[in-house]
Design a protein that fits this description.
Elements: E1 2-5, H1 9-16, H2 21-30, E2 33-37, E3 40-44, H3 47-67, H4 72-83, E4 95-96, E5 103-104, H5 109-120, E6 123-127, H6 134-148, E7 153-158, H7 165-168, H8 174-190, H9 195-203, E8 207-211, E9 223-227, H10 235-242, E10 250-255, H11 269-276, E11 283-287, H12 297-307
Parallel strand pairs: 6-10, 6-11, 7-8, 7-9, 9-10
Antiparallel strand pairs: 1-3, 2-3, 4-5
Length: about 300
């Protein structure tokens, strides 16, 4: 048996969940009897299972005490991290975005390394599978740095791989045609800033979202630039993009080299650049893995299945 003391009723409410939903889920997963009374949790069962559950609960309590909340996603991540042998709980690195009271935190060790790399370098390449927070964390840092006044503009770029025949069939002007490709960037922004504010920033040219092809010939100063889905850049496009760097510019390039949509005879610029720039000071490469996936718990198993 093991006992865990909770500090107050608010902590208990967050840990237990609505109608004790979280406790019921944990009981089922670990086959351990949980008795909750007067701020004290008693765990009864086989020693190995009790030990595992106690580790999970202590991690969840740490998240509550750090952030003042507990999401279902947090519970899933803690459980999966424990299964994979990682004791990581929650980063001290808090990113302040535009929604009042909202802080974005890295949820895995890999994500924490990624955030630190962006803070400490002017050019960072982040390579990893879907769901590892590559774009999301970069957008959060861009908003945070712009909010602090260090940089004046955010530029979000993405290659439109099907920029020929298929794109031409879409209705509307060029902006309407490329919007489907840029949708994930809009979604990340909408999580951290009011939609009205996003539109205002875009109208005032403080946030610019554009296809990669539109960056040719430009030099961007005082900007935070994010190139998303960079595995779909050709070598020539990657060179063109990287030479847009201006004074006081921070650049993050993200992508998944296992999901290249280029024609088979084209080399991915993201795959190519790893060898070309690996030893250049001030440039960092961060590699995220399935351990860093923070979407639905099944995504890790799906990625694993396709790797196998």
């Amino acid at each position: 048996m093991r006992e865990i003391r909770l500090e107050n009723n608010d902590e208990s409410s967050l840990l237990f969940g609505i109608h004790d939903k979280n406790l019921k889920m944990l009981r089922g997963l670990y086959d351990v009897k949980i008795v909750a009374r007067d701020g004290l949790l008693k765990l009864e069962g086989e020693n190995d299972q009790v030990k595992k559950l106690a580790g999970v609960i202590n991690s969840l309590i740490k998240i509550i005490r750090t952030s003042g909340k507990l999401d279902e996603e947090d519970i899933q991540i803690v459980i999966e991290n424990r299964k994979l042998g990682s004791g990581f709980v929650q980063s001290e690195q808090a990113i302040e975005v535009f929604l009042n009271g909202q802080l974005v935190r890295p949820k895995t060790e890999g994500q924490e390394s990624y955030v630190k790399a962006i803070i400490n370098n002017d050019l960072v390449f982040c390579i990893g599978p879907a769901g590892t927070g590559k774009t999301y964390l970069a957008v959060a840092l861009a908003l945070s740095i712009m909010k602090s006044g260090f940089l004046k503009k955010i530029v979000l770029a993405r290659p439109a791989v099907e920029a020929g025949e298929k794109l031409g069939f879409l209705p509307g002007d060029i902006q309407a045609k490329v919007n489907p490709y840029l949708r994930p960037l809009y979604d990340a922004l909408a999580d951290m800033i009011e939609i009205v504010q996003v539109k205002k920033f875009m109208e005032n040219d403080l946030i610019e979202i554009l296809p990669l092809a539109f960056m040719r010939g430009r030099t961007l100063n005082d900007s935070f630039i994010i190139l998303d889905e960079a595995q779909n850049c050709t070598v020539k496009q990657m060179k063109t993009f990287l030479t847009r760097l201006g004074v006081r510019t921070k650049v993050v390039v993200t992508g998944d080299i296992t999901q290249v949509d280029l024609p088979s005879n084209e080399v991915s610029g993201l795959a190519d650049v790893q060898e070309r720039l690996k030893d250049v000071p001030g440039i960092d490469f961060v590699y995220l893995t399935k351990k860093d996936i923070v979407r639905h718990r099944l995504v890790r198993y799906i990625v694993d299945a396709y790797e196998t």
